[in-house]
Amino acid sequence: MKTDLENNVDLVAALLKSMSHPVRLRILCQLRDGEKTAGELQSVIKTTNANITQHLNIMRNQGCISSRKEANYIYSSISNQKILTLINTLQTLFCEKEK
Amino acid sequence: MKTDLENNVDLVAALLKSMSHPVRLRILCQLRDGEKTAGELQSVIKTTNANITQHLNIMRNQGCISSRKEANYIYSSISNQKILTLINTLQTLFCEKEK
DNA sequence: AGTCTATTTTAGAATTTAATTAATTACTTA
DNA sequence: TAAGTAATTAATTAAATTCTAAAATAGACT
After folding, report:
1. Is the CATH number 1.10.10.10 carried by domain A5-94?
2. Which residue of A has its CA nearest to B84?
3. Are the C-beta atoms of A91 and B2 separated by less than 8 Å?
4. Is the CB of A23 under 7 A from strand D?
5. What is the C-alpha to C-alpha distance for residues B24 and A12, in angstroms, rounded to an integer?
6. pLDDT confidence band for A36 (50 / 70 / 90)
7. How confident is the model over A18-43, as a mean pLDDT?
8. Cα–Cα distance between B41 and B99 in angstroms, integer?
9. Closest residue in A to B29 (Cα–Cα)
């Protein structure tokens, strides 16, 4: 059974908002392949590591991203299948290209 | 053929951003059933009509929403199937409820 | 302990966003 | 043409977001 999206707009809007920043969407794209450290993300996404951490925090607080610590590396990953499905849907819908 | 989402993050992030406000997501939900006037939207979404118009403008500028004028009513509607599919995906993913 | 590396946290300024109110436009109808 | 309705635009203010730079934390290594 489903509840209407209308009953959950606040939650869903907050979730979308946490994903709708170029740096954050870039991070999510990177994490599709599996967990990465802030340093690995920074090597691909050109901004400061402080900035990467801040954006990771926003998504962590929203529940998009999980972290685990190992030595002095912190590995971040997409926290659940739903987020991954959403990202894949975005790609299918908006990145289709004619050959 | 697909291009990677990574090549389109700026565009997709901007699109998501235009949808990730509670009032705007509420408007999109309402428009799933078909076009509505600002007045009709206002009767369901409790805010001023100026505010409704402003949010409609944001989505219109982003290409989510189209408008047509008839007499002194302006009917707004979801501009394309992709947006509708995305909204339905959000509902399926995040509004599923156990019976 | 001291140093190095990886990361996070904090504080600040600059920018953007959002809501409110008032004024304006466009159309209809008496 | 004047009044009424629907919607938009503009201006203001308040609030939230973002980036930068500096300081702080945590673990690894010597």
Report:
1. yes
2. A93
3. yes
4. yes
5. 11
6. very high
7. 97
8. 30
9. A6
Largest CA distance in chain A: 46
Cβ–Cβ below 8 Å for A13 and B29: no
CA B76 to chain centre: 10
Q: Which of residues 55-94 of B touch strand D (CB under 7 A)?
A: 56-57, 67, 72-74
In percent, the amount of chain B with pLDDT more than 70 equals: 96
In the beta sheet, which residues pair with residue A30?
none
DSSP string computed for chain B: -B--GGGGHHHHHHHHHHH-SHHHHHHHHHHTTS-EEHHHHHHHS-S-HHHHHHHHHHHHHHTSEEEEEETTEEEEEE--HHHHHHHHHHHHHH-B---
Cross-strand pairs, A23: none
What's residue B2's pLDDT? 59
Token pair of B47, please?
Answer: 């805010």
> What is the per-residue pLDDT across A9-21, written as a single tens digit (0 to 9) for each?
999 999 999 999 9
Domain ranges within chain A, ordered by starting residue: 5-94
B31-79 pLDDT tens trace: 999 999 999 999 999 999 999 999 999 999 999 999 999 999 999 999 9
- Please answer whether residues B9 and A25 qualify as being in contact, where contact means their C-beta atoms are separated by less than 8 angstroms: yes
